[in-house]
Every structure is written in C-alpha cells, then in structure tokens.
Amino acid sequence: MNAAEITLTPTRTSPTEPTIVSAASLIIGTGRTRRFIGREHGAGISYFFVDNDPGQGPGLHWHPYTETWVVIEGTAEITMGDRQLVAQADDTATVPAGVWHRFENIGEGRLRMLCIHASDVIIQTWADED
To answer: pTM for the full model?
Structure first.
C-alpha cells in the first residue's frame, strides 16, 4: 500500500441510526419539486428532484461545484454558458463549476429530473440578483 491509498475497515453496524427521508418532507414551496440538503442527513451530495410542467425551469444561475442532471421523464432544454442542449428521458448532462446555466421543460408533459449537486449544501448565485 502506498501513502496515497486510504484504508477503511468495513463494519456491519452503522455509526448513526439509519433513517429514510420522506419525499413529502423535502417538498419546497407549493409545487412538486423536492430539495435534499446532504449535510442535514450525513450525505456528501445534495439534490433537487424537479417535477416541472411545460415552460417551467429555474432562472440563470451558477454553482462553485459541478451539477449533474439525470432526466427521468420529459424533455429539457439545458443552457450551459453560450450552448444549448436538449436532453430527454434517460439522458445525463453535467455542467462544470462556475458556468452559468439553466434548464426549461420544453416538452408537452411533465419534466422529472434529478439535479445532483457535488456539495453537501446547495450554493447558487442567480443572474438576476443585484
């Protein structure tokens, strides 16, 4: 083993009490979108589970870490910097840290998408903030 390797001895006993986080406890606002803040649950990532109607999506923003999207249902137009991409069910896309981005449901039905933040907290800066 070299100095760069990390060793871990697995255990059958969790150091914390295992829990399930209910979907209902993660809903934000009056819509169907859910927000999971990893730090609150001992996780190293955070996410939004988006459930948007046609025409819906967040405004232009950026994060100091990567964000990866997994489209579960529907069609999303994704803007990353000066590029636009179209993602459909089962597609995955990642935006690098520090790049302005947004997405919008351009389909006729619901857009269901998992937006994974490579951080235990969600940090975002909106373009329309002054």
So the answer is: 0.88
